[in-house]
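Handoff note, outgoing to incoming analyst
You'll be picking up this chain. Sequence as last confirmed:
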Amino acid sequence: MGNILYLIAVILVIIWAISFLGGYYTGGIIHVLLVIAIIAILLKVIRGAT
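Most recent structure output, in case you need it:
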């Protein structure tokens, strides 16, 4: 489950970067996805460290 969560987080960050750097307007939802992705990555790092 952790690997899938990490993969989803990486995909969300890539989608955010493409929309942000590409200049596409996606509204506020893309920032919500970015926050979810960062939380998922942090959880993976914290759980992996213990």
